[in-house]
């Protein structure tokens, strides 16, 4: 296994004029890290070992695959030390055959075609799935006889990406998003290439593969001449694309945006006249802030938009925030490739803090605009015996507008099947 000079790299992370000699070993990084204690490691220990030159130990610890690189350690550190950068460096130098095979396979699947899909959905298959799903929606409800889901539409204002989970295993979940876009009159398109949202190559620590994925997507958006790239309800895809553009010096002739921001904008403008009238039972909802979207990318403005949308949808008195939240929120443990790493025992131990947060709200539903968060919190509920449901924003928006089909209620509980 290659050995890294972690101290030299750690020194590069220090702010101007700072020194590790001034570190009080306060432990804020470790106390706020759900990965603390896994594999006998925590962020403070990782940094101290780096300073002491214990490079071989740090180069070989499997803890780097339990760290989700959520950056909460850097968020609370008085010196702004970002352990996740060291973790990414260590991941990149592990031999490919020793990295968690699930993350590697996901990256390899992305590299196989212009789709950049981690689930291996080819460009022609994606187009066919979109067309077939669209025809089913049109045939099942006359209100959507003219519903559109454009692909490769040049000059469209919005370029929309799509997490591979929908076309691969639950295409009916694409319908609510299309209905929202149709309702507000959005001028949008998919692309037959570079349409996939996820990027597990970034999580392998392989910068060349990360760059290749981002380049394909940026090229697709530039080629169609879209003005705004909207990241769908997927947490890490915003960070991986826009950070990749900055990191690799790519030319992006478009603006990045989150779908959450546009949900809030369209509600404020009256284009999405949603309300909480449907919630006659006073069901309680809480919210998971995706680390990749909030803490690592847009910050409190997006967190504020999330809360505005949720409160409008479910009712002010029916929203219970987790504590802590927003930029300080704990990672759920689904990101950083952890879900794909095959380390289920460690991942669920990591996620226990998030499960406890959810249970403390006594909410029946958790809303989150992130697929990894969605899958992780569902799994935590099943594993630890929780009775909550995890739901996409587009589901409740369409429910409020009376647009949600019976086939689009997979993540709703029995009390919301007939509304």
TrEMBL record:
UniProt superkingdom: Bacteria
InterPro entries named among the record's database cross-references: 4Fe4S_Fe-S-bd, 4Fe4S_Fe_S_CS, Cys_rich_dom, Helical_ferredxn
GO molecular function, one term: 4 iron, 4 sulfur cluster binding
4Fe-4S recorded as keyword: yes
Record-annotated 4Fe-4S ferredoxin-type domain positions: 13-44
Keyword field: 4Fe-4S, Electron transport, Iron, Iron-sulfur, Metal-binding, Transport
Alphabetical list of SUPFAM superfamilies matching this protein: alpha-helical ferredoxin
Record's protein name: Oxidoreductase
């Amino acid at each position: 296994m290659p050995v890294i000079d972690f101290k030299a790299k750690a020194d590069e992370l220090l702010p101007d004029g700072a020194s590790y000699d001034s570190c009080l070993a306060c432990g804020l990084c470790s106390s706020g890290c759900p990965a603390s204690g896994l594999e006998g490691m925590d962020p403070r220990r990782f940094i101290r070992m780096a300073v002491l030159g214990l490079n071989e130990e740090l180069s070989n610890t499997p803890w780097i695959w339990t760290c989700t690189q959520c950056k909460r350690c850097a968020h609370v550190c008085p010196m702004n030390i970002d352990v996740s950068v060291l973790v990414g460096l260590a991941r990149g130098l592990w031999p490919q055959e020793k990295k968690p095979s699930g993350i590697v396979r996901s990256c390899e699947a992305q590299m196989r075609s212009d789709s950049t899909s981690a689930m291996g959905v080819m460009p022609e298959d994606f187009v066919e799935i979109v067309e077939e799903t669209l025809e089913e929606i049109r045939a099942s409800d006359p209100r959507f006889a003219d519903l559109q889901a454009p692909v490769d539409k040049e000059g469209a204002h919005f370029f929309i990406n799509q997490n591979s989970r929908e076309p691969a295993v639950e295409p009916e979940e694409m319908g609510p998003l299309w209905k929202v876009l149709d309702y507000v009159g959005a001028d949008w398109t998919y692309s037959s290439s570079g349409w996939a949202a996820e990027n597990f190559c970034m999580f392998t620590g392989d910068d060349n593969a990360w760059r290749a994925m981002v380049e394909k997507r940026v090229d697709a958006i530039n080629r169609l001449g879209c003005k705004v790239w909207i990241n769908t309800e997927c947490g890490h895809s915003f960070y991986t694309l826009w950070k990749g553009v900055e990191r690799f010096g790519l030319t992006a002739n478009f603006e990045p945006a989150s779908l959450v921001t546009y949900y809030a904008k369209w509600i404020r403008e009256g284009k999405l006249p949603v309300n909480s009238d449907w919630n006659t039972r006073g069901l309680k909802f809480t919210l998971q802030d995706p680390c990749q979207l909030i803490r690592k990318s847009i910050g409190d403005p997006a967190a504020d938009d999330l809360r505005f949308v949720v409160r409008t949808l479910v009712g002010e008195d029916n929203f219970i925030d987790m504590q802590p939240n927003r930029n300080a929120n704990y990672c759920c443990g689904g990101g950083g490739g952890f879900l794909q790493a095959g380390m289920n025992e460690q991942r669920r131990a990591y996620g226990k803090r998030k499960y406890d947060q959810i249970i403390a709200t006594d909410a029946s539903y958790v809303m989150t605009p992130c697929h990894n968060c969605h899958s992780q919190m569902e799994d935590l509920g099943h594993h630890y015996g929780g009775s909550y449901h995890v739901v996409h924003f587009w589901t409740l928006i369409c429910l409020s507008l009376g647009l949600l089909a019976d086939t689009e209620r997979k993540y709703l509980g029995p009390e919301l099947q007939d509304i």
